[in-house]
Amino acid sequence: MMCDVQELRQRLAEHDILSVNSDSSTENFLEGMEIQESLLRALPCSMKKKHSLRKLLRASPGKHVSCWVALCKRQRWVQRQLQEGISNFARVFQLWKTSLDEVGGNFGSGIQSYFTILRFLLLVNLLAVLLASGFILLPLVTIPRNGAIIPQTLDAGSECLNYSCGLGHRPPWQRFQDIFTGEGSLECSYLFYGAYSVGENDDRHYLVCLAYLFSILGYLVACFIWIFQRIVASFMNWQILQWGFKPYVSARIFTEWDFCIQSPEAAALKQRSIYNGLKMDLAEQIRHLQNQQRTRKQLAQLYLLRLLINAVVLLLMATAFYFIHLATESSQGDSQDAARLGVLSQYLPPVTISAVNILLPFVFHALAQLEGYSPNTEVNLTLVRCVILKLSSLAMFLFFLGRQILCLGASSTPQCQPCGYNKVYQCWETHIGQEMYKMTIFSFLTTLASAFLISLPRRLLAKHSSSALAQWLGKEEFLVPHNVLDIVATQTVIWIGIYFCPLLPLLGCVSIFLTFYIKKYTLFQNCQPSTQLFRASRSKFLFQIMLLLGLFLACSPLSYVITRVPPSQACGLFANYSAPWQTVPEAVSHLPTTAQLIFNYATSSVFCFLLLMVLSLVLIVFVSQTQANRQAIERLKRQRVQYVQEKWCLVRKLAQLMAKSP
Fold first, then answer.
1. Cβ(385)–Cβ(377) under 8 Å?
2. Residue 44: what are its φ and ψ, rounded to 5°?
3. Which residue in 72, 161, 259, 500 has its CB near the most CB atoms, within 10 A?
4. Distance (Å, whole) CA 541 – CA 548
């Protein structure tokens, strides 16, 4: 014990912090105390021994300090303990932490990243629900209604004001059908845009229409910032792995074990996690050696094969787009006969889009295995192709829906001239919201059917049947690109429909919450471990990029609808405006003159140009800093190599001298 105390004091003496002079400042003393604690933690001894050493160190002579220094030290210690307590308390309530650790230990970090994205999207949709409840629903419920606003350019008998939601008597089977179509009582609820309206003499101190608009725009901006922050973090990890900073296998074996583990289940979970990590490292090294040993002829054959496979992929995508086009035109062409054709006609576009996006990802996955890429590149390439397919199908569906409802490119037709949109759809925002609602419902039903009608029978067939077909099929592998594709597409639909169906994120929260447990059950019960493992740090970056592309796809039609398209004149908060964005300059016109000047300058082209210049300068600074850091890292690498060479040279000289000495 005394030797350890002497060793610790010797180390502290090297830092000149063992004794505190009367003229030393409080900050220097506290800094010295922190160095003492760090050196004490670095000693190779047990925790019990460290506690004894700390007591001896604090009781050593020369430690008498003023009351103010002791108070500052006590305050800093209490603050650190409070921060650690809050962090540990928040970690207890972290959503799905145990489940995520279980998934990562059994199946690797790649599959764990899928469930992590599910948790992230649940929080994203929960944010939208909180914003809609606090800024739209609560004020709208508390504001008394004095009757709906009749647009100033129309009279009460106009053909653009013949809208009424279906609150009449409906049989039970039709009310059950309304759950899947969004009609009936759901159409008249706050779930859709048409139910939001204020009277002509309502409270002007709080504009619900302005809150409706800015809460949605603020939510989309918050989603962009949140996703961009995760992209930056994932990109940093991906760049570090690209630089090749990898520990040795022996170092990972002897340093990755968590000695705080006590239960056998946690120990087995940690063992499988280390095993999966070592397996990925060895697979990457083997593939790297195989790529270096390829001849020019083999490379030419490989590139030709990849070119042919890409041509096949493009042909399959074009065929899928054509079928989606036919389904969309057929469904919207029969929109007037929807009541006669029932739910099947209304679900024709979602069924077609889902069928295309269920079948083609498996084809893309099989084709990607023939291209000779690494597991990470194979997953990322399949994911890019699938997301392009899914987002393009959504964009095509929205385009043909806009042609039918908003008369895009056909505004001179008789049905579009009176109202500025197709007069068949008196409340066209609600109709589009119903389409997004049906696509969200069908996406969840597809997940449910895939788990219990495909994966479960396949597992039972492989377990209880010895036929060649059953053994060939086997248990299903959990394909990360296919599952990420589904959640990205569903979240894109929610982002698109948030303007037309403000409470659609609430449905998304329920769907994602149930999807997490359905996918976990499918993974542990109906799936086998994937034959190819990949790193989550490399795929998370691409997953976030796909989410960002989905957000951009959702913002494009929403920005056009908010700024250019005339709203429905028979329903909604913007019935008396030529466009929803008109509420912003009208609200600004009631502000003081100084505030109006500031707002006009902030929205002018001069301010935008100056802001663009400032952002460009900031970007140039960051790019220059990145290049300087990269050069410094390369210089340090060269210095490290030189130092190693110098040490080996000294070792050789020492060996020669020792050999010459008698």
1. no
2. -80, 75
3. 500
4. 11
- The conformation of residue 453, written as its DSSP 8-state character, comes to I
How far apart CA 447 and CA 489 sit, in angstroms, is 13
- Please report, for the chain, the start and end positions of each structural domain, with discontinuous segments joined by +: 2-92, 109-245+294-304+410-587, 604-662
Q: What are residue 477's phi and psi, to 5 degrees?
A: -90, 145
Angle at 80 between CA 78 and CA 82, to 5 degrees: 65
User: Would you tell me the crossing angle of helices 26-42 and 47-58 to the nearest 10 degrees?
Assistant: 150
575 CB-near residues (< 8 Å, 6+ apart): 148, 149, 151, 197, 567, 568, 569
Phi, psi of 476 (to 5 degrees): -70, 145
User: Exposure pattern of 100-123 as b/e (b: 16+ CB <10 Å)?
Assistant: bebbbbbbbbbbbbbbbbbbbbbe
Q: Label residue 147 left, alpha or beta by phi (over 0 means left) and psi (-120 to 50 means alpha).
A: left
Give bridge partners of residue 476 from the DSSP assignment. Answer: 527
Give residue for tokens 């300068």.
617
Q: What contacts 337, CB < 8 A, 6 or more positions away?
A: 345
| Backbone angles phi and psi of 100, in degrees to 5 | -65, -40
Note the pLDDT of residue 167: 63
Q: How many Cβ atoms sit within 10 Å of the Cβ of residue 159?
A: 11
Q: Rounded to the nearest 10 degrees, how much is the dihedral formed by the CA atoms of 212, 213, 216, 220?
A: -170
**Tens-place pLDDT, residues 27-42:** 454 455 566 666 666 6
In the chain, count H helices and then E strands. Answer: 25, 2
Mean per-residue pLDDT, 401-422: 76
- Alpha carbon distance 42, 323 (integer Å): 66
**In this structure, what are the phi and psi dihedrals at residue 527, rounded to the nearest 5 degrees?**
-115, 155
Average pLDDT over residues 295-308: 84
Q: Is 624 helix (H, G, I), strand (E, B) or coil?
A: helix
For 83-96, write each residue's pLDDT tens digit. 777 766 666 557 88
pTM of the model: 0.75
Q: What are the φ/ψ torsions at residue 302 (nearest 5 degrees)?
A: -65, -45
